[in-house]
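The authors assume throughout that readers already know how a fold can be written as discrete tokens. In essence, backbone conformation is discretised, so a fold becomes a row of integers matching the chain in length. A single example would do more here than another paragraph of explanation. For illustration, here is how one protein appears when written out as sequence plus structure tokens:

…
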Amino acid sequence: MGEHVAGEERMRRTFSRQCPHCTRQVTWPDTPTYPFCSERCQLIDLGAWASGAYRIPCEPLEAEEPWLETDDSEGEGETEY
């Protein structure tokens, strides 16, 4: 029975860290929006991702070749191989 109690204690662990947006202290599993402190911070971060504010710096790609358009109106551009 002692082993079972020790296992339950392990399951009750909490994790604490700073909110990625406002740096307030956040504890899991007490905060449903973890790792964010609130739904507001969660939505601000989502908006930053959606707007492209978070980017990985890289070299620009070389220009790609344009698609070749065909005059084949019957096949709608499909080619048989």
Notes: DSSP finds two helices and two strands in the chain.
